[in-house]
UniProtKB/TrEMBL annotation:
Swiss-Prot/TrEMBL TPR repeat ranges: 10-43
Annotated protein name in UniProt: DUF4470 domain-containing protein
Top-level taxon in the UniProt lineage: Eukaryota
Keywords: Repeat, TPR repeat
A UniProt-annotated Pfam family: DUF4470
InterPro entries noted in UniProt: DUF4470, TPR-like_helical_dom_sf, TPR_2, TPR_rpt
């Protein structure tokens, strides 16, 4: 009777546990199952239940432990009974998902005892067998994860391609210069912290770097105590020209510090020269001559390799080559396209036009600039220094200017002619490669590269870039705000004198690492120790040791780079791992490209993260947004601007990294819909205009899905959830409530859970996705179980190249291009490619479209394009390409903004060339920009 009572109580406890389990209350379920096990210790079922709930929680070692205990109680029963088959399958899957290689034999044993017809939750025995064999082969072929990570970073782009491979050069910034850390923030740092590290991305004209140096010098806690022994600043820009200009300015300031210490006559002129080079379009002859002297000195010092130009500056070898190339370009004579008369006319007109436009939209500039500078710049397109400098260095200018001030129009013409003949264009505002590609004429670009990239060979077309994108009169007011009556050169000289003192005072503590590179790429390389120069020994005993450079930063400044590369989605995935693990550390970026498109931060976050709510963002990305208490209502009195547009930098503070509790996890269906939402957003971006004054880019490619899943594994989502998502994509069909975007901007309401679940074909992306997963599988922190033949060995992944005939297309810099393989047996390519690819309510649901989706089209989102040869290269599994070569497949470049073909067709079987396989050794390559 007692045994029956215990059995009944155990069954009741198990039933309570089952109810909790179905409701997702796993901790309550565990307690109920434990009670059941204690009441019936000889019953395998409670142990099997505990194994199941631990499995669902993602606690795979515990799932294995309880499954083994349950099997001990079932020893007398044959292996093929369903209850034992389920336990063997759970053991095998748990070990594969957790990548527990120490128990590989146990996994093999468990799989060997499964009946070949058995399928657990859609996972076949064949899939388990092929997965364990594939994992063993992959780990054998690439024993070092770091080796594969470096190859992925080197070979796989994270964005859709631009068809102009030369980035634009933004020579002058737009935001107000500011330090990334102030005195109260320094005082709030832990007392045990004795170093500071800052990362500036898209540093441009380095205004925020210089402002930070000035601020640190002004804080006695840093400059006049021994508390902070090291101050490391990493400066990063996509353009070597930006770093080259920064190095020139630093060289000038270093020269000034020495000359001032030695009381050299005329040392004050160095600050004037620096100010001109930094913020003026046209340079007096003396300034231009001194700038060229500094360029000569830097080329000689950097090429010799014996010593760094400054004891605190480190430029990695790969970046150094690019910087030297730019410095040499700036030594070359300019063509007539860059003549001073032409430039002055353009500068005067365009700067004034831009100023009037800004005043029309935002009202008059609240700052009062120098009336003299404003008058002179509007009249001549030039800024003049003070009278003492002119008398010392350019007396003829003083005479002509005095005559001009007398009011004689003839004298004004004489002054203009003098400027046109003697003054020079500030070449540090120009980048020869950018200039040669701005007109987007592929024939001209090919000629430029065919000439060996002969500097300044452009002789027609658009006016030079950057010359009219800033107003030096307004610009100087941003740097020095407390002397409204000062002139441009005076204000900038005061600023640079402070920066010089900062460099001197911080000299022994300071290291500046200047890197040419793309932000997210460099961030990942820093995270995974894949920056080659950081493994190099110092040149000598006194040299900078890059092996000691920090991997974590107190501040990460990103300017508005996220506007172009996926917003906070890319920023959080790339930058958050580099923040020092303390609440005082933060990252910051602003939105300059398209703020009118967003009415709130929630909409901004919905668009880029598909996650509008900040509590959820904090839980999943370990950042929390800092609010400015002084901002609220600041501009409401001036104009009806949404609060989102009132903000400057969005500051996101680090919060403690920790696994999500069960209560903070998304439910499985919600999680799957969120991941599939990102997949569909990448594959099927909503059409958008090619020309817009507030563009919203859709630049990401399929590699971002793997980066996202890596992050979700880190915060504790179960491996089998993510493996199931990947397996479904590999099968070519997903079932989800998610949909491709219905608007350019994804709004909060678009994320409401109102749609029904639907099966959708993703076959057009399957070949690329399975190629990428075959590579990425070794890098994922969880195991992936896929159908047999879904993935391939690395030896079967090949880089292909194809060159396209000459074509004409506009807006080639937009990151909205993809490769489309088309089977001509399906007929002509469609007018509405996006509609054809959408297997849902707003797509083409005719049977012919379904057939084409499943048999007649492949899409490649991750490819590189070399503009001057019109060559696309991409990685693809060999079997997919060989299969296309047996048919009559064509290849196009297609836009994903207007969803139109860019090129004519090339023949896959004839024109596609094999370059190398994945495991081939790379040849060293030196990028030119």
């Amino acid at each position: 009777m007692v045994l029956n009572d215990l059995s009944a109580a155990s069954i009741a406890a198990r039933e309570r546990g089952n109810s909790f389990y179905r409701a997702g209350n796993f901790n309550d379920a565990i307690n109920a199952y434990k009670e059941a096990a204690s009441l019936a210790p000889e019953d395998y079922a409670p142990l099997s239940n505990m194994s199941a709930v631990r499995f669902e929680m993602g606690r795979y070692p515990d799932a294995v432990e309880y499954a083994e205990k349950a099997l001990q109680l079932l020893k007398s029963e044959p292996d093929d009974v369903p209850k034992k088959q389920k336990l063997y399958a759970r053991i095998a899957k748990s070990l594969l998902y957790s990548l527990d290689f120490g128990k590989a034999e146990l996994a093999k044993t468990a799989i060997s005892r499964l009946d070949n017809s058995y399928s657990a939750e859609g996972t076949s025995v064949e899939a388990l067998q092929s997965t364990i064999a594939g994992v063993k082969a992959l780990w054998t072929s690439v024993p070092q994860e770091a080796q594969l990570r470096a190859l992925v970073l080197d070979r796989l782009p994270r964005y859709k391609a631009h068809l102009l491979d030369c980035p634009e050069y933004y020579a002058v910034g737009h935001d107000e210069p500011s330090t990334v850390i102030d005195k109260p923030e320094l005082q709030a740092l832990p007392a045990s912290q004795d170093d500071l590290s800052f990362l500036f991305c898209g540093s441009g004209d380095a205004r925020n770097v210089f402002s930070t140096l000035l601020s640190l010098f002004q804080v006695p806690l840093v400059a006049k105590t021994s508390r902070f022994k090291k101050i490391h600043i990493t400066i990063l820009d996509l353009k070597p020209a930006a770093l080259a200009k920064m190095i020139i300015i630093v060289d000038m300031l270093s020269r000034y510090s020495i000359m001032k210490f030695l009381k050299t006559k005329g040392h004050e002129d160095v600050l004037i020269v620096s100010s001109y080079v930094y913020c003026c379009q046209l340079l007096p002859p003396f300034v231009f001559e001194k700038m060229q002297e500094h360029i000569d000195h830097l080329i000689e010092a950097l090429e010799s390799g014996d010593d760094d130009p400054f004891p605190y500056l480190y430029v990695p070898p790969s970046s150094l080559r690019q910087v030297i190339r730019v410095l040499k370009q700036w030594k070359e004579p300019l063509s007539n396209h860059y003549s001073v008369p032409r430039a002055r006319t353009f500068i005067r007109y365009k700067v004034k036009f831009n100023r009037e436009q800004a005043e029309m939209y935002f009202g008059p500039n609240p700052r009062v600039p120098s009336k003299k500078d404003r008058k002179d710049f509007d009249a001549f397109g030039a800024i003049f220094a003070d009278q003492d400098f002119i008398e010392r260095r350019e007396p003829r200018l003083g005479e002509l200017y005095a005559a001009y001030e007398s009011g004689d129009s003839v004298q004004m013409k004489d002054l203009e002619e003098y400027l046109d003949v003697t003054w020079k264009l500030n070449v540090t505002l120009l980048d020869s490669d950018h200039e040669a590609t701005r007109n987007e004429n592929l024939s001209n670009i090919s000629e430029y590269y065919g000439s060996g990239c002969q500097a300044w060979s452009v002789n027609d077309g658009e006016n030079p870039a950057n010359l009219a994108e800033f107003d030096p009169v307004d610009m100087s007011d941003l740097f020095i705000t407390d002397t409204p009556s000062g002139t441009v050169i005076k204000k900038m000289s005061v600023f640079f004198e402070g920066v010089t003192l900062g460099i001197i005072m911080l000299n022994e503590k300071l290291v500046i690492e200047a890197v040419v590179g793309e932000m997210a790429d460099v961030m990942e390389r820093l995270r995974y120790d894949a920056m080659d120069h950081r493994s190099l020994a110092p040149k000598d005993d006194e040299g900078i040791d890059p092996r000691q450079f920090p991997k974590k930063f107190d501040r990460i400044h990103m300017s508005n780079i996220p506007d172009y590369i996926g917003g906070p989605f890319t920023a959080f995935l790339s930058a958050r791992p580099l923040l020092r693990e303390q609440k005082q550390a933060n990252m910051r970026f602003n939105n300059l490209l398209n703020p009118p498109m967003f009415d709130s931060h929630e909409t901004f976050q919905a668009e880029y993260l598909l996650m509008p709510h900040e509590k959820q963002i904090a839980a999943h990305f370990a950042v929390v947004r800092e609010r400015d208490p002084e901002l609220s209502g600041l501009l409401d009195k001036m104009m009806p601007i949404p609060s989102f547009m009132q903000e400057n930098y969005f500051i996101w503070n680090a919060v403690l990294e920790k696994p999500l509790s069960l209560g903070k996890r998304m439910r499985r269906q919600e999680f799957e819909a969120w991941i599939y939402g990102h997949l569909l957003k990448i594959c099927l971006p909503y059409p958008r205009p090619l020309q817009s004054d507030r563009p919203v880019h859709a630049p990401l490619n399929l590699t971002m899905i793997f980066r996202l899943l890596e992050r979700m594994s880190e915060v504790g989502y179960p491996a089998h959830w993510m493996s199931s998502i990947l397996a479904s994509i590999c099968n070519g069909e997903i079932e989800t409530k998610a949909r491709a975007p219905r608007h350019i901007i994804v709004h909060r309401n678009d994320l409401s859970d109102t749609t029904s679940k639907k099966a959708m074909s993703v076959v057009p992306w399957r070949a690329e996705f399975t190629t990428l997963l075959s590579i990425w599988r070794r890098l994922l922190p969880f195991g992936v179980i896929t159908p047999k033949h879904a993935l391939v060995p690395l030896t079967e992944i090949v880089e292909y190249q194809v060159s396209f005939p000459i074509f004409r297309e506009e807006r080639l810099r937009l990151p909205h291009f993809t490769l489309v393989f088309w089977d001509t047996q399906c007929g002509q390519t469609p007018r509405d490619m996006r509609g054809l690819l959408m297997d849902e309510e707003e797509g083409d649901m005719f049977p012919s479209a379904k057939k084409t989706r499943n048999q007649g089209v492949h899409i490649v989102s991750a490819f590189r394009f070399v503009t001057h040869t019109r060559t696309a290269s991409f990685w693809m599994r060999r079997d997919a390409v060989e299969d296309m070569k047996t048919g009559n497949w064509k290849l196009y470049i297609w836009r994903t903004d207007n969803w139109q073909a860019v090129t004519g067709a090339v023949d896959v079987s004839r024109d596609l060339r094999v370059k190398r396989s994945w495991l081939d050794v790379d040849e060293p390559q030196i990028p030119i920009s």
